[in-house]
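Case 231 in the screening queue. Each case pairs one protein sequence with one candidate compound; here the compound is adenosine-5-diphosphoribose. For every case the pipeline is the same: read the inputs, emit a complex structure as tokens, and attach any notable structural observations.

Predict complex for case 231.
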Amino acid sequence: MCRHLGSNRPPIVILTGAGISAESGLSTFRGDGGLWAGHRVEDVASPSAFERDPDLVYEFYNLRRRNLLSIDVKPNAAHKALERLQSEWSERVTIITQNVDDLHERAGSCNVIHMHGELLKIRHLDSGEVRSWNDDCDGSTLDGRWRPHIVWFGEAILEAAAISEALMSAGLFLCIGTAGQVYPAAGFVHEVAGPSVEFNIQGTAISKSFSAAVLGSAAEHFPIFVDALLK
Ligand code: APR
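Case 231 output:
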């Protein structure tokens, strides 16, 4: 449950990336065994790929959707700690996620901005209508004019205005499990006035922009950080 009691504590923004879901059994994008390993990004995640070979693109996201819905994928201790921070921190805590999974929501979080879309939604190619969707989607779904509700390379991020507002009003920025290679998310650290902490198993392209870093598993270290913050 989200609540703001009002205090001297600063609003917090947390940016999450594929690394926070890695310990829930979802592959990250880059690195060994990464999601893109078997596919060139431009073959599966761009408007031109969808025009050229829609079946390949549909299938790529169908596999990911089925995987997300498999019984053994569930929120881990880092997702749960974020939910606890949202419940117990007396000011606004906004999660901006690059992830298209629903693990923050399954952990009970609210105020989650899905800047790169959501795997469990589809969007109408003509009207732009978005609807929840847990099944496979392809060129024969409904009236045959639906695509994954995913922001592809070259497309604008979702909820840009809400993101700007959250970053401008935040006094603490936390970043969990992102390689810092995709903009605009990789630049958010520069938009928050106040300290920033990066959580990652290794240094990233943007590590030097943070005030501090916690190296190691997010599921192991982030709950400890939340405990300390809430004391
Ligand atoms: N705990 C913390 N960090 C981890 C963990 C873990 N258990 N496992 C992996 N990481 C880190 C990796 O070290 C890496 O820096 O998570 C990061 C994952 O990086 P990417 O796979 O590149 O994912 P992300 O940064 O979220 O990608 C951004 O790129 O392809 C696009 O749209 C896609 O949203 C995605 C965007």
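Case 231 observations:
- The mean pLDDT is 93.
- The pocket of adenosine-5-diphosphoribose is lined by residues 17-19, 22-23, 28-30, 34, 98, 116, 177-179, 181-182, 199-202, 204, 217-218 (CB under 6 Å).
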